[in-house]
């Protein structure tokens, strides 16, 4: 089991916490994550392999929450404690502790914690450049790799929308990069010095999502303690809610009220807390279809789509495949310490034929797979997924124009322009009018450049 991956999954759910500890059944620390070195200077390097009771001398077998969870198998949620580590650093924290199971056997525990000191000041600390902190910096506009007209237009709209504080609704199929767009919106906005928090609404149970979003007060429900929700934690910044259409309709109603009133009420409380948060929502299903099917409240839909950004699927912007491939080759060369130069011409041809149901994420994973299988410096057909090979075998018509001559390059460029026009206009007649040429001229060019009617409809 990769404990670091386990921690990341937990922190994805409790992403407003400051850190986590993982121990085995004996109390030995397996992993230690700490995002507040100004309060607690301990790190994974200084704690891993040590006993929990060595790192926290005041803890015992009887008063340790982590050992209690290992003994009982029951999680502890939103508990408060005061801790002093072996460096005599004392701090108060709010924590939740969970058992770790392997095949129905408890093998350890994980505890996520939130420091309570100087909380308001900390909320205004933003993620610094990765060179200074070692963390990944938020995505910027230029991190969106594209050359296609549709994506360039999207980036222009992104820059325009980033200047306001209006809600934004992002629609795109799975794997198109919705969170990347959301982070770019935040990073280019006046709120970029404040927090960007992200929550996948489909990743957690309905009752837990409500407490995570809006917070709780002690006594609000069994084992509830005072803790802020994501709206309070993101105050002044941006909150990204992915797959918002998977949210329970009752929670959607509460979300709508917060958006309208800019006030949040914790579960179990009647006090309204003013918040200033920009909401960016996303979904991987067409928004209007979600409204028709009852997955998304109509009033919430109109409140969220003050600005709507639609990310086109990769199959409709295939000119982006090559620059994305080059980018990921460079990325994995650095990550895996390889010297892969390129993919073969046959692989790129296969990529151009493939429909990419998983979009950019699938392309990334396919190139990573190629890195693991490739023994030379060029990723070949034997190094990629067999379903792509099958696509090439079935292609038959509309094969890409290959070669590096000026004529071939010019034809590829012209082909991309025509395909974009056909995809957006929907008919040969309308596309010809948009391009300023006759229908007969466009039909002739389509035949020369191997753009078939069936291919055009697919796109």
CATH class label of the largest domain: Alpha Beta
Largest sheet: 5 strands, antiparallel
Averaged pLDDT:
81
Shape, per Cα inertia axes = globular
Instruction: Give me the CATH architecture of the largest domain, please.
Output: 3-Layer(aba) Sandwich
Q: Radius of gyration, rounded? A: 26 Å
What would your notes on this structure say?
α7 (149-162) crosses α8 and α18 (406-425) crosses α19 (428-435). The chain has four domains: 3-115, 2-Layer Sandwich (Beta-Lactamase), CATH 3.30.450; 141-310, 3-Layer(aba) Sandwich (Rossmann fold), CATH 3.40.50.300; 315-390, Orthogonal Bundle (Helicase, Ruva Protein, domain 3); 406-458. A hairpin with a 4-residue loop joins β1 and β2 (29-34). The protein has helices at 3-13, 44-47, 52-55, 65-72, 119-123, 130-133, 149-162, 178-187, 206-214, 230-233, 249-261, 287-293, 298-304, 321-336, 345-353, 359-373, 386-395, 406-425, 428-435, 439-448, 453-458, and strands at 19-24, 29-34, 76-84, 90-102, 105-115, 168-171, 196-200, 238-242, 263-265, 272-274, 278-283, 307-310, 342-343, 378-379. Residues 118-138 and 454-459 have low confidence and may be disordered. The protein is α/β, with parallel strands linked by helices.
Short synopsis of the structure:
The protein has 21 helices and 14 strands.
